[in-house]
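User: Sequence in, structure out. Go.
Assistant: Echoing your sequence, followed by the structure tokens.
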Amino acid sequence: MGERLKGRTAIVTGAGSIGPGWGNGKASATLYARAGARVFLVDRRAEAVEETRRIIEDEGGVCATHVCDVTRGAEVANMVAACVAAFGTVDILHNNVGAAKPGGPVTLSEDDWDDQMAVNLRHVFLACKHVIPVMEAAGGGAIVNIGSTSGVTFTGQQQIAYQVAKAAIVRLSRSVALEYAPKGIRCNTVIPGQMHTPMVEAYLAGQQTGGDAAGLIARRNSRIPMGFMGTRLGRRPGLPVPGLRRGALRDRGGDRRRRRPDAEMHRPMTTHPHALRRRGPGGDTGRPRSAALRTGGRVRSPPNALPRRRAS
């Protein structure tokens, strides 16, 4: 096991997999464990999360499991309390749960709309609601919310509720990041490209192509310039999980290690560019990050920037 997250505790929701192979939640949980974190594995299916537990423990990692419907507030509150009881605190929250249903504004039923909002968006709100007070009391933490390219652009399948919910996660993350940055809590949205996870064969093929998994895979691959989806856990052990930067979590006892100012948050999807400013050799440039380019240790304005007003 690695040392980078040694002593930290990470909650990963959706830590199981809907079928054989590597789902995003299972892969993320395993990477946290390989980096040294104690991982609290959450899923609504006990058998799915148990498989992830076996993988982590077989590799020498430390984890605990919890069965929870993350769309229900009382269950989420109990889940967070169980994690604190098991490991003492929560340093990292990784919200991975998500599922899509096809349909546009006319064809999608009201019940399906409500269900999609609960599965894809409400659970992020609930997890943040109950974890943030724990992080605040501990002096900081990191929240990673998993978005989707469907929340940014049309990906070939009309699934309006899923698209709206995933787009809203970006706004939610920005709002949380801005409110809680002074308290040492970071919040990022990670948007993966299209992935070939077990959900393709176990769920999406039946939903979109009448069970023709090969046809769905070919269709999804055709949307990608490189011609193939992301597959399984191919990263080397110890490589950081997206959304967590080296030195981003504070040491206990208030030690705030110095870190590059441009390593605070992901751009462009995590926080408003005016919320953080670059610091040059002489201090704060007074300009937003998006309006500054760093070259050779100096901060220069891009060619299309407005000229700075000279002091009279």
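User: And one key feature?
Assistant: The radius of gyration is 21 Å.
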